[in-house]
Write a structure and sequence with these properties.
Blueprint lengths: L4 E5 L3 H13 L3 E5 L5 H8 L3 E5 L7 H11 L5 E5 L4 H9 L4 E4 L4 H19 L6 E3 L2 E4 L4 E4 L2 E4 L2 H12 L4 E3 H8 L5 H17 L6 E6 L3 E6 L2
Length: 229
Amino acid sequence: MKNSKILYVEDEIFLGKIVKDSLETRDFEVVMVSDGKQVMSVFEKFSPDICVLDVMLPNQDGFSLAQAIRKINPHLPILFVTAKTQTEDVLKGFQSGGNDYIKKPFSLEELIARINNLLQITSRKANPFNGTIQIGKYELNPEKYELKIGEQIKKLSAREVELFKIFAENQNIIINRKEILLRVWNDDSFFNSRNLDVYITRMRDYLKEDEKIEILSIKGVGYHFLVGK
Protein backbone atom coordinates (compact mmCIF):
# COMPACT_ATOMS: atom_id res chain seq x y z
CA MET A 1 0.00 0.00 0.00
CA LYS A 2 1.41 3.40 -0.99
CA ASN A 3 2.25 5.97 1.65
CA SER A 4 -0.15 8.91 1.89
CA LYS A 5 1.32 12.14 0.51
CA ILE A 6 1.11 15.31 2.61
CA LEU A 7 1.77 18.82 1.34
CA TYR A 8 2.75 20.63 4.54
CA VAL A 9 2.89 24.43 4.39
CA GLU A 10 4.54 26.09 7.40
CA ASP A 11 6.76 29.20 7.56
CA GLU A 12 8.19 28.44 11.02
CA ILE A 13 11.12 26.37 9.79
CA PHE A 14 12.11 24.85 13.12
CA LEU A 15 8.55 23.74 13.94
CA GLY A 16 8.04 22.59 10.36
CA LYS A 17 11.10 20.33 10.42
CA ILE A 18 10.01 18.68 13.68
CA VAL A 19 6.51 18.03 12.33
CA LYS A 20 7.79 16.84 8.94
CA ASP A 21 10.25 14.40 10.53
CA SER A 22 7.57 13.09 12.88
CA LEU A 23 5.12 12.51 10.03
CA GLU A 24 7.76 10.71 8.02
CA THR A 25 8.42 8.33 10.93
CA ARG A 26 4.70 7.40 10.61
CA ASP A 27 5.25 6.45 6.96
CA PHE A 28 3.78 9.58 5.40
CA GLU A 29 5.48 11.07 2.36
CA VAL A 30 5.88 14.77 3.16
CA VAL A 31 6.85 17.81 1.12
CA MET A 32 7.19 21.00 3.14
CA VAL A 33 6.88 24.51 1.71
CA SER A 34 7.50 27.67 3.73
CA ASP A 35 6.51 30.39 1.23
CA GLY A 36 2.87 30.77 0.16
CA LYS A 37 3.91 31.91 -3.32
CA GLN A 38 5.56 28.54 -4.05
CA VAL A 39 2.70 26.32 -2.89
CA MET A 40 0.64 25.94 -6.07
CA SER A 41 3.55 24.94 -8.30
CA VAL A 42 4.60 22.32 -5.73
CA PHE A 43 0.98 21.19 -5.35
CA GLU A 44 0.60 20.49 -9.08
CA LYS A 45 3.87 18.52 -9.26
CA PHE A 46 3.43 16.58 -6.01
CA SER A 47 -0.31 15.70 -6.24
CA PRO A 48 -0.81 15.26 -2.47
CA ASP A 49 -3.48 13.18 -0.77
CA ILE A 50 -3.98 15.91 1.85
CA CYS A 51 -2.84 19.48 2.46
CA VAL A 52 -1.87 20.80 5.89
CA LEU A 53 -1.83 24.59 5.60
CA ASP A 54 -0.65 27.21 8.06
CA VAL A 55 -2.87 30.30 7.82
CA MET A 56 -0.27 33.06 8.26
CA LEU A 57 2.31 32.72 5.47
CA PRO A 58 4.61 35.06 3.55
CA ASN A 59 3.33 36.27 0.14
CA GLN A 60 0.05 34.28 0.13
CA ASP A 61 -2.08 33.21 3.10
CA GLY A 62 -3.52 29.76 3.74
CA PHE A 63 -7.13 30.80 3.08
CA SER A 64 -6.45 31.97 -0.48
CA LEU A 65 -4.31 28.87 -1.10
CA ALA A 66 -7.22 26.65 -0.03
CA GLN A 67 -9.51 28.44 -2.48
CA ALA A 68 -6.99 27.90 -5.30
CA ILE A 69 -6.59 24.21 -4.38
CA ARG A 70 -10.38 23.75 -4.29
CA LYS A 71 -10.63 24.97 -7.91
CA ILE A 72 -8.23 22.21 -8.99
CA ASN A 73 -9.42 19.44 -6.67
CA PRO A 74 -12.82 20.02 -4.98
CA HIS A 75 -12.55 16.90 -2.80
CA LEU A 76 -8.96 17.00 -1.51
CA PRO A 77 -8.90 17.18 2.31
CA ILE A 78 -7.45 20.42 3.71
CA LEU A 79 -6.42 20.83 7.35
CA PHE A 80 -5.65 24.33 8.62
CA VAL A 81 -3.01 24.93 11.28
CA THR A 82 -3.63 28.27 12.94
CA ALA A 83 -2.67 30.38 15.92
CA LYS A 84 -5.90 32.32 15.39
CA THR A 85 -8.73 31.26 17.66
CA GLN A 86 -11.40 33.86 16.93
CA THR A 87 -14.69 32.51 15.60
CA GLU A 88 -14.54 34.63 12.43
CA ASP A 89 -11.12 33.20 11.54
CA VAL A 90 -12.36 29.64 12.01
CA LEU A 91 -15.44 30.40 9.88
CA LYS A 92 -13.26 31.94 7.18
CA GLY A 93 -11.19 28.77 7.12
CA PHE A 94 -14.22 26.57 6.46
CA GLN A 95 -15.66 29.02 3.94
CA SER A 96 -12.41 29.00 1.98
CA GLY A 97 -12.55 25.22 1.63
CA GLY A 98 -11.01 23.76 4.78
CA ASN A 99 -12.26 20.46 6.18
CA ASP A 100 -10.81 20.78 9.67
CA TYR A 101 -8.42 22.91 11.72
CA ILE A 102 -6.01 22.51 14.60
CA LYS A 103 -4.82 25.33 16.85
CA LYS A 104 -1.22 26.09 17.75
CA PRO A 105 0.34 24.88 19.93
CA PHE A 106 -0.77 21.34 19.11
CA SER A 107 0.38 17.84 19.95
CA LEU A 108 1.80 15.73 17.14
CA GLU A 109 -0.52 12.88 18.13
CA GLU A 110 -3.57 15.11 17.66
CA LEU A 111 -2.27 16.34 14.29
CA ILE A 112 -1.70 12.77 13.09
CA ALA A 113 -5.14 11.70 14.34
CA ARG A 114 -6.80 14.54 12.42
CA ILE A 115 -4.83 13.76 9.26
CA ASN A 116 -5.76 10.07 9.44
CA ASN A 117 -9.40 10.95 10.08
CA LEU A 118 -9.58 13.16 6.98
CA LEU A 119 -7.83 10.52 4.85
CA GLN A 120 -10.28 7.84 6.03
CA ILE A 121 -13.24 10.05 5.18
CA THR A 122 -11.85 10.70 1.70
CA SER A 123 -11.34 6.97 1.23
CA ARG A 124 -14.93 6.23 2.23
CA LYS A 125 -16.21 8.82 -0.24
CA ALA A 126 -14.13 7.26 -3.03
CA ASN A 127 -15.37 3.77 -2.10
CA PRO A 128 -19.08 4.06 -1.29
CA PHE A 129 -20.59 1.91 1.44
CA ASN A 130 -22.02 -1.47 0.53
CA GLY A 131 -24.53 -3.25 2.74
CA THR A 132 -25.14 -1.87 6.23
CA ILE A 133 -23.40 1.20 7.67
CA GLN A 134 -22.45 1.38 11.35
CA ILE A 135 -23.23 4.69 13.09
CA GLY A 136 -22.43 4.30 16.78
CA LYS A 137 -24.90 1.71 18.14
CA TYR A 138 -27.08 2.03 15.04
CA GLU A 139 -27.05 0.16 11.73
CA LEU A 140 -28.19 1.94 8.59
CA ASN A 141 -29.41 -0.20 5.71
CA PRO A 142 -29.74 2.14 2.68
CA GLU A 143 -31.23 -0.56 0.42
CA LYS A 144 -34.05 -1.29 2.86
CA TYR A 145 -34.41 2.38 3.97
CA GLU A 146 -34.00 1.27 7.59
CA LEU A 147 -32.22 2.51 10.71
CA LYS A 148 -31.86 -0.19 13.36
CA ILE A 149 -30.79 -0.27 17.02
CA GLY A 150 -31.32 -3.53 18.87
CA GLU A 151 -34.78 -4.76 17.91
CA GLN A 152 -36.02 -1.27 17.02
CA ILE A 153 -36.29 -0.51 13.30
CA LYS A 154 -37.12 2.91 11.91
CA LYS A 155 -38.26 3.25 8.29
CA LEU A 156 -36.60 6.18 6.50
CA SER A 157 -37.37 8.31 3.47
CA ALA A 158 -34.93 8.52 0.54
CA ARG A 159 -33.73 11.95 1.67
CA GLU A 160 -33.23 10.74 5.23
CA VAL A 161 -31.13 7.84 3.95
CA GLU A 162 -29.01 10.24 1.89
CA LEU A 163 -28.50 12.53 4.88
CA PHE A 164 -27.51 9.62 7.11
CA LYS A 165 -25.01 8.47 4.49
CA ILE A 166 -23.44 11.94 4.37
CA PHE A 167 -23.14 12.05 8.15
CA ALA A 168 -21.74 8.49 8.22
CA GLU A 169 -19.06 9.54 5.73
CA ASN A 170 -18.15 12.49 7.97
CA GLN A 171 -18.14 11.05 11.49
CA ASN A 172 -16.34 13.35 13.95
CA ILE A 173 -15.74 16.07 11.40
CA ILE A 174 -17.51 19.28 10.48
CA ILE A 175 -19.79 19.02 7.43
CA ASN A 176 -20.44 22.08 5.29
CA ARG A 177 -24.12 23.01 5.14
CA LYS A 178 -23.99 24.07 1.50
CA GLU A 179 -22.38 20.76 0.51
CA ILE A 180 -25.28 18.88 2.16
CA LEU A 181 -27.90 21.01 0.41
CA LEU A 182 -26.33 20.60 -3.02
CA ARG A 183 -25.93 16.86 -2.60
CA VAL A 184 -29.43 16.15 -1.25
CA TRP A 185 -31.53 18.85 -2.93
CA ASN A 186 -29.22 20.02 -5.76
CA ASP A 187 -30.05 23.54 -4.60
CA ASP A 188 -28.98 25.63 -1.58
CA SER A 189 -32.01 27.95 -1.61
CA PHE A 190 -33.48 29.40 1.59
CA PHE A 191 -36.50 27.10 1.31
CA ASN A 192 -34.34 23.96 1.14
CA SER A 193 -32.15 25.28 3.93
CA ARG A 194 -35.20 25.44 6.20
CA ASN A 195 -36.12 21.91 5.07
CA LEU A 196 -32.67 20.76 6.14
CA ASP A 197 -33.24 22.20 9.63
CA VAL A 198 -36.37 20.07 9.94
CA TYR A 199 -34.54 16.94 8.79
CA ILE A 200 -31.68 17.55 11.25
CA THR A 201 -34.15 17.83 14.14
CA ARG A 202 -35.70 14.54 13.03
CA MET A 203 -32.27 12.86 12.78
CA ARG A 204 -31.38 13.95 16.29
CA ASP A 205 -34.59 12.32 17.49
CA TYR A 206 -33.83 9.09 15.59
CA LEU A 207 -30.35 8.89 17.15
CA LYS A 208 -31.29 9.76 20.74
CA GLU A 209 -30.90 6.15 21.99
CA ASP A 210 -27.11 6.43 21.64
CA GLU A 211 -25.88 9.02 24.14
CA LYS A 212 -22.46 9.14 22.44
CA ILE A 213 -23.90 10.54 19.19
CA GLU A 214 -24.42 14.28 18.84
CA ILE A 215 -25.16 16.58 15.90
CA LEU A 216 -23.80 20.02 16.76
CA SER A 217 -24.85 23.07 14.72
CA ILE A 218 -21.86 25.26 13.78
CA LYS A 219 -23.27 28.70 12.96
CA GLY A 220 -22.35 29.90 9.48
CA VAL A 221 -20.63 26.61 8.58
CA GLY A 222 -22.70 23.45 9.02
CA TYR A 223 -22.76 20.53 11.44
CA HIS A 224 -20.27 18.60 13.56
CA PHE A 225 -21.34 14.95 13.70
CA LEU A 226 -19.84 13.50 16.87
CA VAL A 227 -19.81 9.72 17.30
CA GLY A 228 -18.12 8.47 20.48
CA LYS A 229 -16.62 5.02 20.98
